[in-house]
Amino acid sequence: MATATEMGTNERFLTEAAFARIFEVLESQGFTVVGPTIDQEAIVYDRIRSVDDLPRGWTDEQAPGQYRLQRRDDEALFGYVVGPHSWKRFLFPPQATVSKADKTETGWQFQAVEPEPAKFAFLGVRACELAAIRVQDRVFMPGPYVDPIYQQRRDNALLIAVNCTQAARTCFCTSMETGPKCTSGYDLALTEIANGFIIEAATAEGAEILSALESDDASIQQRQAGQTARQQAVDQIERRMDTTDIRDLFLSNLEHPRWDDVASRCLSCTNCTMVCPTCFCSSVEEVSDLTGDHVERQRQWDSCFNVDFSYMNGGNVRDNTRSRYRQWLTHKLASWIDQFGSSGCVGCGRCITWCPVGIDLTEEVAAIRGDAT
Amino acid sequence: MSSKPTLGVFKFASCDGCQLSLLAAEDHLLGVAAEVEIAYFLEATSHIQPGPYDIALIEGSIITSHDAERIQQIRRDSKFLITIGACATSGGIQALRNWADCNEFVRSVYATPDYISTLATSTAIADHVQVDFELRGCPINQYQLIEVIQSVLAGRRPRTPVHSVCLDCKRRGTVCVMVAQGTTCLGPVTQAGCGAICPTYNRGCYGCYGPAAQPNLVSLTGQFESSGVPREQVVDSLRNFNGYAPEFRAESERLEASRESTT
Amino acid sequence: MSDGYASRMPTPEAAARPWQTHTVAIRDVRREVEGVSTYDLAFLDDTVREAYRFAPGQFNMLYLPGAGEIAISVSDDPRNTEAYGHTIRVAGNVTRTLAGLGVGETLGLRGPFGTSWPLSECIGRDVVIVCGGIGLAPLRPAICTLLQDRQQFGRLNLLYGARSSDTLLFEREYDDWSRQGMDVQTTVDRSSPGWLGNVGVVTLLLDQLPSFDPHNTVLMCCGPEVMMKFTVMAALNSGLSEQQIWVSMERNMQCAVGLCGHCQLGPTFICKDGPVFRYDKIAPFIDVEGL
Fold first, then answer.
1. Touching check for A293 and chain B: CB below 8 Å?
2. Most exposed: A144, A344, B93, C200, by fewest CB within 10 Å?
């Protein structure tokens, strides 16, 4: 079925000046705007307040184990791909207090901590990231138990997508069928073209924001420019992952010799899991005051690459890197399908770029499949 | 006489920085002082009580024969012995002597080398006596120290993380300096505890908390070398505050040996 | 009737607040064997007490602030609604701290969580329960229920192995269980003076079980993983299918509701897809080293 965008019924054109007003419109509606900005020699996601905070004229060059900022030869605001952060940082915060315990005269009293109200507008969500949010929605929200923090933040979040107009060497969203074009799951979607943006609202909330901005019907030329820009991203994607029967492939290759091979390279440092926009593991830590009478339980991001992650009865179930890497990749690409009905991988390539030794999961998949070159 | 558990703090070859961490804990230290009786802590008080001690905190490494004898006595006097810091746990920066001629150092540093009596090596406390818990860091993290003391008092296992510095970088949103800037960083093989200070201030990790659990040194140093870092520099990066920790030591010696065999 | 045996699902309030812990007080502590005690825990809040029900095999998260939280199967008769027994071996930080508490002191409890023993599947069939060591504790609620509704079921056999005669759990109850219609057989790994019973692994009891109808039997098993593995092998050899065998698994459980990722075994979350599994669901994964 053709989407509204493909039919071209809904596309408007925003000049950059008109787009710049989106910050005040969002803030006037109580949103905290989070989006791309330059920090620590990378394009990260952080609180941003105006168009001046965006990475104007910068792009990112990525390869296994390598990320570098580069100047562009234009003034594009969204002329990069994806960086070290993902939106999970805001929907599933790295650290959060989940409950409190206080010792009283009648014994311990316990209180689950209500999530602090948060209302984020995410500006610059890529197609693979929309897919990642959908994946985490299926982890944290279907129940019977839900994650209250995630749900509060997710329910109130406004998603302003930006279509990719280029791809990094680490991108493989086309293999995972998650991009590069944003097709659903957003409130507004932008495509950056010369002098402005093609914009399209997909929800009532998005339409309300759009109506507060000065926009025109997009002309045929502008629509074509948008289409050309989006096609450029498709054309640039060179990395592939063959997902044919991938669940059975992995679950029937738990003793494949490739696991030993990758274990000799893997640092078990947790970087891939931390940058992954879908990895959701956490641990709860006791934080006590000196008297021991007031204790908070803090949930923190954790990783299946940590040695003590599987600690039980005095030992670790996964006590070597081989078993931990196997757990991560098998979960991500295979058992995730059993658990949540889709792959846990969206093809964003972060785990490839941000692995300090450049391990590339698409190569590992090919090797397990037995068609390594 | 007090019925509170007694605590002794003992110094060997070290810079005193770890003891200072304990003193710098101030409020927390007062809290600890309420739970234990500080029986021996020369850096804090000249009031000394003889052993036995319920908890002994040992700072510093063994570099003289006198040290080697004294640690035996402290061990005999102590119920639960905890080493604090890189010196006590892995020999410290002074363990660089272990790869060199110590007499040469003595001759070039001291006006009258004859007055100096020292062993040829700097070694960890665990090389001499049984250690009940090793608290890593150069210097140690005061909160971890308080946790260790509290857990010993409560009769439980101390909760100090064994994961890599990378996890802490990611939790705090620090961008990887190795990937984004090509900086040599020991974070992927180093135990957390500092809160990932150096990468957050744009430097590579120096490995102050020693090797993380099951570190893959060979892969990481291979990556350094393939990105153009000369082998001498890779070896130097491993020979730091925890250079004589078994995993770091094995790797720097492997790199040196394989260089020798190839040249 | 069979619905009465189903796992208890969370109330909407509980489902929306997975971290809500309730205060329980220790009503009684009974030493079972060396290093193992049963703690009867009672909710202080009347509303919570009235709402709480568990099914045999389900577990609770017990919380000792400062020390941490652990998953413990309820070892009590499900008909009890005042206090719930939890049979616990001192092993780590939390259990050691718990061992220092006495009657009247409080701790936290979340639950119940997980799947339960397939008691409705047992109706009209023979039931063989095979346990090792403290693995009898999670099956005690099932035994209580089978005996309570005794006429619903065929022959009941309990085969229980322990390391030695002084580590046999709930020994004072075996005569009662026998009287109520369950054949109880025990074996120990190591004999000791005065022990006249069986010596050897528990699977020997299974091999020797007389008049065993493999087509009309449900087998429930809990114990160390290696013991369960050999029990399953013996059961399959004697003609049971994987669909007739149920085991209770253990992994590092932290959130208990499938959100933290720790307890995975292959595609399963032990906390929410288990701990009780029909064997065919985990058969491909249970033998894989380090999975």
1. no
2. C200
A198 forms bridges with which residues in the sheet? A13, A191
| Digit-coded pLDDT (tens) for B102-133 | 889 889 989 898 888 899 999 999 999 999 99
**A27 — contact with chain B (CB < 8 Å)?**
no
- Asked if A356 lies within 8 A of B179 by C-beta distance, the reply is yes
Nearest-neighbour CA in chain C from B157: distance (Å):
6
- Structural domains in chain C, CATH included, are 2-113 (2.40.30.10), 119-248 (3.40.50.80)
Separation in Å, CA of C3 to nearest CA in chain A: 19
Determine, for residues B156 and C67 on separate chains, whether the beta-carbon distance falls below 8 Å: yes
B152 touches chain A (CB under 8 A): no
Block residue for tokens 């039980």: A312
| pLDDT of the residue at A2 | 39
Q: Tell me which residue range forms the domain holding A316.
A: 246-289+303-369
Q: What ipTM was estimated for this complex?
A: 0.94
Nearest to B168 by CA among B196, B197, B144: B196
Q: Which two tokens stand for residue C220?
A: 């429930």
Q: How far is B223 from chain A (nearest CA, A)?
A: 6
Q: Is residue A112 part of a domain?
A: no
SS (H, E, C) B155-191: CCCCCCCCCEHHHHHHHHCCCCHHHHHCCCCCHHHEE
- Taking CB atoms and an 8 Å limit, are B154 and C92 in contact across chains? no
- Optimal mutation site among C64, C69, C93, interface B, most CBs of chain B within 10 A: C93
C42-80: pLDDT as tens digits: 999 999 999 999 999 999 999 999 999 999 999 999 998
